[in-house]
Amino acid sequence: MSSLVSSIQVLARRTHFTIVQVRHLNLLEYQSKHLLRKNGVAVQDFCMVDVHGTNELDKFNVKEYVVKAQILAGGRGKGHFDNGFKGGVHITENKEEVPKLINQMLGYKLITKQTPKDGIEVKKIMIAESVNIKRETYLCILMDRQMNGPVIIASPAGGMDIEAVAEKTPHLLKKSTCRHL
């Protein structure tokens, strides 16, 4: 028994334990919009369709529809699906076109610059009201492992392709730590 105890003591001195904190806070676009609306921020109207049969499209009538695949990755508009369909974001004024777009996206894998090589399966699609955009900005809160905490990144040059903004005009990106969040 004493040899077992001494072996455990030797192993304990040689073993270094690392505690890794894991956060599971990943929001799809529609979830973010729900939270914003719930807290008084104006967002465009939208409805959802998913692989489980949820379909709010019948009662959703707007002038112009934006059909957006919901995955946790950027570059959806420039992406392509494993069935050959191009683009995870489409705009149409024809409501009859919306189900056709949905059928090309739902259940298929969307491949973008930010997904694994074989893509991510689209299980939800947001159909939103198209709105005129006067100005787009970019704001995100992300976990920075180097800072060991949340970081806010903002830019007046928002909208699509924030990676290109970072590469071509890095001075337009502002980064701030937020240790007390």
From TrEMBL:
GO BP annotations, alphabetical order: succinyl-CoA metabolic process; tricarboxylic acid cycle
InterPro entries in UniProt: ATP-grasp_succ-CoA_synth-type, ATP_grasp_subdomain_1
Pfam family, one: ATP-grasp_2
SUPFAM superfamilies cross-referenced by the UniProt entry: Glutathione synthetase ATP-binding domain-like
Residues of the ATP-grasp fold succinyl-CoA synthetase-type domain: 26-177
GO CC terms, sorted: mitochondrion; succinate-CoA ligase complex
Molecular function (Gene Ontology), one example: succinate-CoA ligase (GDP-forming) activity
Protein origin, superkingdom: Eukaryota
Name of this protein: ATP-grasp fold succinyl-CoA synthetase-type domain-containing protein
Organism: Acanthoscelides obtectus (Bean weevil)
